[in-house]
């Protein structure tokens, strides 16, 4: 076993390496005369700016009981504003359509936070369907039925042999047109089908790694094939396949960035849009990378916890 002092030395070296990497990035920015503006980024994550409340027509401002009432010239129904943080008009002022009459202090998600939510949503919906497809086709790959084996082999080889970007275009422009898919649905279908092929091979390998005596023992106890697979083989296979499945699920989250090519405003597309508005490309892309890392790291941590729990139950 390592001594406590050697562990601290190892951690210290790690911290030193990380500091050197951060210093190298900072130095690279200085070498190209780049000025960092992290303050520009925050409104694109969570916007806390005052929101304008505008007049809905021409009229006169009336202040009464802490309410702003705009009496319109052409209508008997006034515009009543009760919730505001600051008024920009006074009692008796003449108001025109579109004028800012008050402001309210509230926060809302910016495009980066909204894009992160879209990425999480499309990734985890695709993850669910990918597991379902992978389990079905993984079982078909080891089936004694030749038709099932041929179909699953065709699916796996066809999907793994073509780029995901091409598959997204085919699903959206061809299959999506025929079946009337919206962009989000087309993205989910493409990601699910693509990842499902890899999951199928992982599950097949996991099942075949279980000794054949396990199936024979289950059948000798009176179980049929389906019961033996559900209660004996698959639980053992899932324990063996968790590490490669974790890697594939992390790849799915990163691959979801490709759906931006069909105008889904995920985290990557939101990043591109924010760069054009903030003129802070390094800050934006470092933030986008960090957010992807948070999502994939959380998934990896959850699967590691599950793996330890399953190992402890043996």
TrEMBL record:
Membrane-traversing stretches: 12-29, 116-140, 152-175, 181-200, 221-238, 284-303
CDD domains xref list: TM_PBP2
Domain named ABC transmembrane type-1: residues: 116-303
PROSITE patterns named in the record: ABC_TM1
Keywords: Amino-acid transport, Cell membrane, Membrane, Transmembrane, Transmembrane helix, Transport
Compartments, as annotated in UniProt: Cell inner membrane; Cell membrane
InterPro entries: AA_ABC_transptr_permease_3TM (IPR010065), ArtM/GltK/GlnP/TcyL/YhdX-like (IPR043429), MetI-like (IPR000515), MetI-like_sf (IPR035906)
Membrane topology, record value: Multi-pass membrane protein
One Pfam short name: BPD_transp_1
Main location: membrane
Family that this chain belongs to: Belongs to the binding-protein-dependent transport system permease family. HisMQ subfamily.
Known role: Part of the binding-protein-dependent transport system for glutamine; probably responsible for the translocation of the substrate across the membrane.
Name under which the protein is recorded: Amino acid ABC transporter permease
Organism expressing this protein natively: Vibrio tritonius
Taxonomic classification: Bacteria, Pseudomonadati, Pseudomonadota, Gammaproteobacteria, Vibrionales
